[in-house]
C-alpha cells in the first residue's frame, strides 16, 4: 500500500500534512528533538521548524492518533532536495519525530511502515537515512525493521556532529528506470 492515508498498527493514521498544520509540525519536531542533546546553535533547528520550505521539495507526512497530530516524517523521493545520502535507486526519509507525550505507542513504527510501504510499491532497491548518534530510540526502531548500519556513508554535517547512516535493502522486483 503506498497511497496515503494509511492506517497502521495502534490506530495511527498516516497522511500528507495539511497547509494549516505546518507550524504545528515544526513545533512538534523541535519538541521531539529537544531532549536529544542536539547542540542549540545549529541551523538545523530552523530547518526543523520550516515545514513550508520542506514541502517545496519533499513530501511531509503526519501521523494522527485519536484525531490529534502525533508525529511526522519527510519522504524524500526522486529529485528531492532533501536527499542527503541516497544513491539513485535508494529511497530516503528524514525528520522522523513523534510528540514526546506519545512515545511508545507505535506512532514511530507506523510512520516508518508507511515509508517502507511507499518504497516497496515504487520499486526502490533500498531505503536509507541518517541519524545522529544520540537518537538511540530511533536506532532501535530501525534495527527492529531490519535496517543495518553503513558506516562508509556516515558524515558530519557540522564539526562535532556525526550522522550515522542506515540502510534497509528491499528484496524483490525493482524498477530499472526511474523510481519515485
Ligand atoms: C524515534 C521516535 C520517532 C520513536 O517514536 P515512538 O512513537 O515512540 O516509536 P514506537 O512507539 O513505534 O516505538 C518506541 C518504543 O515503544 C515500544 N512500543 C511501540 N508500541 C508499543 C505499544 N503499543 N505498547 C508498548 N510499547 C510499545 C517499542 O517497542 C519501542 O520500544 P524501545 O524504543 O524501548 O525499543 C521518537 O522517539 C522520537 O521522536 N525521537 C526524537 C526524534 C528522533 O530521534 N528522530 C529520529 C530521526 S533519524
UniProtKB/TrEMBL annotation:
The UniProt keyword set, sorted, is: Transferase
**One GO MF term:** N-acetyltransferase activity
- Specify the N-acetyltransferase domain's residue ranges: 12-169
* The keyword Nucleotide-binding appears for this protein: no
What is this protein's record name?
Acetyltransferase (GNAT) family protein
InterPro entries, per the entry: Acyl_CoA_acyltransferase, GNAT_dom, NAT_camello-type
Record's keyword annotation contains Transferase = yes
